[in-house]
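Hey, I was hoping to borrow your eyes for a little while. No rush at all, and the record is pasted right below.
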Amino acid sequence: MLNVNFSPFPELTTERLVLRQIVQDDVNELLFLRSDKNVIAFLDRDPADSTEETHEFIRTLDSFLSRNETVTWAVTQKGNLKMIGTICIWHINRQHHRAEIGYALYPDKWGKGIMQEALTCVLNYGFNTMKLHSVEAIVNPNNKASIKLLERNGFVREGYFRENYFFKDKYLDSAVYSLLSQERK
């Protein structure tokens, strides 16, 4: 059985980034990430619509963290701890040493290698520290940029679910990508 402990919070750093805990002071940046039409275009969920809703979401993240169920990082740039994105490991299946990864980034930061850098760092943490055997990502098949990022990092499509997700009065498809620890590039 996988033993997971996120206390103290696992702050991570890369050449350009600091991945830190999300705090209530991040409410405006997180509200943007959860409501901007470009960011949520392929996340297939309703946009967040208030700072109070976002404060509650941060409290929920804290609760998941305290129970070692999910770890979500604020993606920040060294020298400026303002959140520009998020990345998380969630849906942790302790019995099978598997978890899901998810991420979002401010549109003005797209195409600059930031999420590549954050993803590499979080995958290292997942495989080396958490001792995960596999990591999955569930993606809207139309999200070409996310699929490209995953494939560049060695993820392979292992499943395609037709019309398994209902959102805004229509059924949508989902693609499941995964990466095994021994397949890491």
